[in-house]
Amino acid sequence: MAEIAIKSVAKSFGAFRALQSIDLTIADQEFMVLLGASGCGKTTLLRIIAGLETPTEGEVWIGGRRVDRLPPRERGIAMVFQNYAVFPHLTVFENIAFGLRMKKLPQAEVVRRVNGTAELMHIEQLLKRYSGQLSGGQRQRVAVARALAMEPDVILMDEPLSNLDALLRLEMRAELKGVLAGSKTTTVYVTHDQVEAMSLADRISVMNGGRIVQAASPVEVYRNPAARFVGSFIGSPPMNFLPATRASDGRYQVAGLSLPGPAGVGQLLEFAIRPEDLSMAPGGLSAVARVVEPLGAHTLVTTEVDGALFRAVLDSDVRISPGDELSLLPKPDRVRWFHPESGNAVV
Predict the structure, then answer these.
(1) Which residues does residue 286 pair with via DSSP β-bridges, in sequence order?
(2) Which pTM does this prediction carry?
(3) What is the DSSP string of 163-201?
């Protein structure tokens, strides 16, 4: 069992508070993605789990054992870095075998593990090559194979695909998901790429300002953001937001459109809707098209609604030109509401 329990972990660098009392439990064999913009604290949290940073406060437990006072080699972890960290003077075989040799495993066991993980990562034909003879994608496969060969309880990955081109990232995402599911290890994966997070994770922890804003399944994070920040960060394009005022009949006025809303939560709220949850239909929000971007499968239209930018993802066969007046009707079951001051979702 390799459940990870992070208990009230905080980290300060001088006067700067990088992590603000993080509490997070990652289940055995779960694929957890730490997602956020640069500087949000996700890599610091990963390094604390790895033992490369010491928490200022709090505890880290792996498999029911407290590890925040243990060195990295005693934590039962393996790590894959952004820059691969593949040794140029060693063959692929010896790169994968490096940690196994440090553990002084018998040669037969080293060969078994190296061959097994190389086959898993489809690099068995490269075992005699040096890293200088490999492409970026092949070096990344070597780094993952080296981590898997250790048969760790936990694999930590720090933006491992960020140096690859878009097509190769797509290929490696699919491979990683299958390989790590089969390895039955607990995985913690850091990225700023929401597509990676949505496609790989069992759960996503969205981070901002050294805090975890929401930890939930990809679908839950996307459909039911717990805070305005999550709605504005997840999605491409992100959620639209407009101010809403409760009328005397209890409904909310949003840019002239009357909508049913939550009861007893205040006079002012923020209305939110994802661009793909809008359709062109009568009785919707009055909008003026500003920019029209045909994207093949759909058309992204940036409009102006009541003086605010407002985006809609519409069918590709819709014919719209800048300056056209539109009526954008939100799907009622996709509307979300947020407190304007706290930014938290109304539940």
Answers:
(1) 327
(2) 0.90
(3) TS-HHHHHHHHHHHHHHHHHHT-EEEEEES-HHHHHHH-
Residue found under tokens 């920040």: 229
Residues 6+ apart with CB under 8 A from 280: 312, 314, 318, 326, 327, 328, 329
Considering only CA atoms, which of 25, 144, 159 is closest in space to residue 83? 159
Q: Whole-angstrom Cα distance, residue 249 to residue 234?
A: 33
Give the CATH fold of the 237-338 domain: OB fold (Dihydrolipoamide Acetyltransferase, E2P) (2.40.50)
In the chain, the amino acid numbered 26 is I
Q: Per-residue pLDDT for the chain (347 aa), expressed as one digit of tens each?
A: 699 999 999 999 999 999 999 999 999 999 999 999 999 999 999 999 999 999 999 999 999 999 999 999 899 999 988 777 888 889 999 999 999 999 899 999 999 999 999 988 889 999 999 988 888 888 888 988 999 999 899 999 998 888 778 787 888 888 888 888 888 899 999 999 998 999 999 999 999 999 999 999 999 999 999 999 999 999 989 999 999 999 988 899 999 899 998 987 888 999 999 999 999 999 999 999 999 999 988 999 999 999 999 999 999 888 899 999 999 999 999 999 999 999 999 97
| CB-CB contact of 326 with 301 (8 Å) | yes
CA distance 180 to 50: 18
Domain coordinates in residue numbering, the chain: 4-225, 237-338
CATH of domain 4-225: 3.40.50.300
